[in-house]
Amino acid sequence: MFILLILSGQQGYIAYKDYKKAVDKLTGARIRAGESTTAEKSFSLFASEAQQRNEGAQVQEPLSAEVDGILLSDEAWLSLAMIKIAGQQQSYREGDTLAGYDDAWIETITQDSVVVRYHGVAQTLALKRPDYFKGMEPPPPVEELDANRRHAALMLSDYFVLKPLFREGKLQGYIINPRNASGYFKQSGFEPGDIVVKVDASDMTRELPAKLMATNWLKMKVADVVVQRHGQLKNIHLNVLND
């Protein structure tokens, strides 16, 4: 009987050791599986973050557009920018969307540039230099030029500023103001509040011909202007070469 008890106890001890080995293996497999899942999750999160950084670092292509002219107003919503895209010129105000682009709109119009917000990124389009400056170095200061050379470089836009005047959404003409403190504005026959309704053959109360003339104004030296003053029309001849 004693020998049977010893044999039974030894057999039970062997069975217990086999059971414990099986439990340890199963627990280790679960732990390793958990570590693998965590690593996979961490790698997945890291890859996603890196991908987001790469996507955010993408640089937008520059806009294919040229600023041909700018009419600046004291009131920002009245300012106009003449912009050429794919050979077609069109005028824009602040807030307008550029033709041919899904997400490009005019943010700011300044004296010599236009800021466009393109896919959330600001791009500055500089005013194109006039034809008479192409291929030339910037001219020396005005005080160093003799009278003849100074006159040769001057345009009507150096003396007068045109600003569109709208009433109830309809173009009434362009208010003309002096650009500098010289007396040329008064000498030419203008008075504060004059509204330009015609320049040469262009009707300045019609948007399309007015926009074209406003662009040409930047490089004109001579013009016949009709202004509206206190309900009456007055003809004024301008020639910057005779000032």
UniProtKB/TrEMBL annotation:
Q: Where in the cell is it found?
A: Cell inner membrane
Pfam families recorded for this chain?
T2SSC
Q: Where is the Type II secretion system protein GspC N-terminal domain?
A: 42-127
Q: Does the keyword 4Fe-4S apply?
A: no
Grouped into one coarse class, the protein's main location is membrane
InterPro entries in the record: PDZ_sf, T2SS_GspC_N, T2SS_protein-GspC
Which key words are in the record?
Answer: Cell inner membrane, Cell membrane, Membrane, Protein transport, Transmembrane, Transmembrane helix, Transport
Establish whether keyword Cell division is in the entry.
Answer: no
Query: What is the protein name for this chain?
Result: Type II secretion system protein GspC
